[in-house]
TrEMBL record:
<comment type="pathway">
    <text>Cofactor biosynthesis; tetrahydrofolate biosynthesis; 7,8-dihydrofolate from 2-amino-4-hydroxy-6-hydroxymethyl-7,8-dihydropteridine diphosphate and 4-aminobenzoate: step 2/2.</text>
</comment>
<keyword id="KW-0289">Folate biosynthesis</keyword>
<dbReference type="Pfam" id="PF08245">
    <property type="entry name" value="Mur_ligase_M"/>
</dbReference>
<keyword id="KW-0436">Ligase</keyword>
<dbReference type="GO" id="GO:0004326">
    <property type="term" value="F:tetrahydrofolylpolyglutamate synthase activity"/>
</dbReference>
<dbReference type="InterPro" id="IPR018109">
    <property type="entry name" value="Folylpolyglutamate_synth_CS"/>
</dbReference>
<comment type="similarity">
    <text>Belongs to the folylpolyglutamate synthase family.</text>
</comment>
<dbReference type="GO" id="GO:0046654">
    <property type="term" value="P:tetrahydrofolate biosynthetic process"/>
</dbReference>
<dbReference type="InterPro" id="IPR036615">
    <property type="entry name" value="Mur_ligase_C_dom_sf"/>
</dbReference>
<dbReference type="GO" id="GO:0005524">
    <property type="term" value="F:ATP binding"/>
</dbReference>
<keyword id="KW-0547">Nucleotide-binding</keyword>
<dbReference type="Pfam" id="PF02875">
    <property type="entry name" value="Mur_ligase_C"/>
</dbReference>
<comment type="pathway">
    <text>Cofactor biosynthesis; tetrahydrofolylpolyglutamate biosynthesis.</text>
</comment>
<dbReference type="GO" id="GO:0005737">
    <property type="term" value="C:cytoplasm"/>
</dbReference>
<protein>
    <recommendedName>
        <fullName>Dihydrofolate synthase/folylpolyglutamate synthase</fullName>
        <ecNumber>6.3.2.12</ecNumber>
        <ecNumber>6.3.2.17</ecNumber>
    </recommendedName>
</protein>
<dbReference type="InterPro" id="IPR036565">
    <property type="entry name" value="Mur-like_cat_sf"/>
</dbReference>
<comment type="function">
    <text>Functions in two distinct reactions of the de novo folate biosynthetic pathway. Catalyzes the addition of a glutamate residue to dihydropteroate (7,8-dihydropteroate or H2Pte) to form dihydrofolate (7,8-dihydrofolate monoglutamate or H2Pte-Glu). Also catalyzes successive additions of L-glutamate to tetrahydrofolate or 10-formyltetrahydrofolate or 5,10-methylenetetrahydrofolate, leading to folylpolyglutamate derivatives.</text>
</comment>
Length: 417
């Protein structure tokens, strides 16, 4: 279900006729579109470019909160959206309004002039146009997929490049070789411009180090003691979020060489950041009513790395958790469920949000069963919620898909603002 206004949906739908027959990783199409728009990427505020497999959105949310706590005006570009497309483009602190968004989309469509372009490339071009025309102090720009050939990688001299933890995901585009995946992420590191990396697996760290050396980019690394310096309780739930907050804090300090962001602002942002569908406790509403009064949590994590972080958090909570899960057919479903096996959780699978290539609930249930979990396949999300609640857990966790997460937030009246 789309939360967009009909006018925004119509403006986005115009790009469907421009899709290439095959999607190949390249910057040529978006560079052509940006040239036609007058190269808005050359007229942006200082850019912090963020790539990685997991934690990109949370790290961006922490950075935004820290910068805003210091009084800065912050643009943010993230993807995908959960309920409304507008969530992808935050202008000086506020989500883009429909009328302005439609105007930038229409100008982009006209500039492309019937040439081939993907949806993400076209909307990234429109976003960069928007960011170039609204004043701000910093633009936090999140990579969509990979890095080297991602549509956002048209920034020649970012103020800072940030790489969050690298792991396996999007195998159909990035492959299953961790070094190769890391090379794609490290493609955002630019000549002579500072780069910051999270704590990485050795293979990924070696690739990132080599890329920085190749282009002469100063490379900084997050250290464990920096994580320990963060507040014990940061705004986003989960032990891994302290590391994301620490990475954001270090990014702000590096960026603060040109704009001062002090420790008070960093700590305030760490305690006040908001990022929906990441271990989010749902409020009372139609979704939580299905659980009969039990606490209901929501997390859009959908790969093994994310599952390990979620499982670690659940282990710390104790008690029994029931998972309500849906996934895309392209995801590593068996790998996702493995970290939950030691916790003895019970899984209830359901269809994913309409319009996506979802794994059927019965097939997803087989993957959970192979991971050693008790599982029940359900024919609807509502049935899965009721069955999960009937298993008498201490809490329910809806997980496995950002698309399902968006449906849940819309259904429960909690669309991001």
């Amino acid at each position: 279900m789309s939360g967009n206004s009909p006018a925004v949906d119509a403006a986005l739908k115009r790009f469907e006729g421009l899709y290439p027959d095959t999607i190949e990783l390249s910057l040529g199409r978006i560079e052509h579109a940006l040239d036609a728009l007058g190269r808005p990427q050359d007229r942006l505020p200082p850019v912090i470019h963020v790539a990685g497999t997991n934690g990109k959105g949370s790290t961006c949310a922490f950075m935004r909160a820290m910068a805003e706590a210091a009084g800065l005006k912050v643009h943010v570009f993230t993807s995908p959206h959960l309920v409304r497309f507008n969530e992808r483009i935050r202008l000086a602190g506020k989500l883009v309004e429909d009328a302005a968004l439609i105007g930038w989309l229409d100008r982009t469509f006209e500039a492309i002039g019937g040439g081939q372009i993907t949806h993400f490339e076209a909307t990234t071009a429109a976003a960069l146009l928007a960011f170039s025309e609204v004043p701000a102090d910093v633009l936090i720009l999140e990579v969509g997929l990979g890095g080297k050939y991602d549509a956002t990688n048209v920034i020649g001299a970012p103020a800072l490049s940030v790489i969050t933890p690298v792991d396996y995901d999007h195998a159909q585009f990035l492959g299953t070789d961790l070094a190769g995946i890391a090379a794609e992420k490290a493609g955002i590191i630019k000549a002579g411009r500072p780069a910051l990396t999270s704590i990485q697996q050795d293979v990924a760290d070696a690739v990132i180090t080599a890329r920085a050396a190749e282009v002469g980019a100063p490379l900084y690394r997050l250290k464990p003691h920096f994580i320990e310096a963060m507040p014990e309780e940061v705004a986003l739930s989960g032990r891994h979020q302290r590391a994301n907050a620490a990475l954001a804090a270090m990014a702000m300090q590096l960026f603060g060489q040109s704009v001062r962001i002090d420790q008070a602002a960093i700590f305030k942002g760490a305690r006040e950041a908001v990022w929906p569908a990441r271990m989010q406790r749902l409020k009372d509403g139609p979704v939580t009513a299905l659980a009969g009064g039990l606490p209901v949590w929501l997390d859009g994590g959908h790969n093994p790395h994310a599952a390990r972080a979620i499982a670690l958090h659940l282990d710390g909570l104790g008690g029994k958790t029931a998972l309500v899960s849906a996934m895309l057919a392209s995801k590593d479903s068996a790998g996702f469920f493995v970290p939950f096996a030691p916790l003895g959780v019970e899984v209830f699978t359901c269809p994913n949000a309409p319009g996506h290539q979802a794994m059927p609930p019965a097939e997803l249930a087989q993957a959970a069963s192979r991971a050693g979990l008790r599982v029940t396949a359900c024919t609807s999300f509502q049935d899965a919620m009721r069955a999960a609640a009937a298993s008498r857990p201490d809490r329910l966790l809806i997980c496995g898909s950002l698309y399902l997460a968006g449906e849940v937030l819309a259904m429960n009246g909690e669309a991001p603002e």
